Input
Amino acid sequence: MAGVSIGGSASMTPDVAFSSLLENYEFMKKFIEKNKIYEYYSRENADENYVFALGYRGIYELFAPSKSDEDIDKDAAIFDLTKTLKTNFSISADKKTGLITVSYEDNDKSYAPKMVDMFLEDASEYLVKNNLNNVNKKLHYFEKEMAQAQGFELRQSLSGIISKILQEKVMMQSKQYYQCDLLTPAQESYVKDKTKPKRGLILVVSFVTSIILGIFVVFFLNFIRSEEEKK
Output
């Protein structure tokens, strides 16, 4: 997305504003409840869209934890989910160009772009609502001062301030997302464009580990045999 300056007193850039909301537990809790995110992740077939190497999911099925609604503290689960979402979201900005990148990492690649869209919509609605509240308070104050002002120059100066505030208000409401114009819509990543697991690294580590364990087993067996020969 491209950050757009709307003038006025707004100094917080969109990327900072979005990132701050990721740290806001009350906002994230409402975000999860509104979009039924907890229900999505806790449903029975939540892993139906997972992609496995060679299409084989036997090992995953073997170690996958069974889901049960018994003895689940939903509030605690939602709190843990807010931590997970904060980790999975990535918001970065190029200060030179004003370009902002928002991405989400998930085991279900089809759900990731939906999460980005839902977060941007809810975060923008929240930020715009708060800013409009502040703008309306300023507008009310200066209009009150305008009505009580004496002298042409003072009234003209206050009129200019009110005009800027109204311009800020109109610009704020004209954007789909908070102070941003959308350049590239969120989209599902290509199946090979994965972030993890790094299977090559797993194979190398497994190979080296197996060699070390093999050497250890050989020395251990040799030690046992030598002890038996001594006896």
The mean pLDDT is 82.
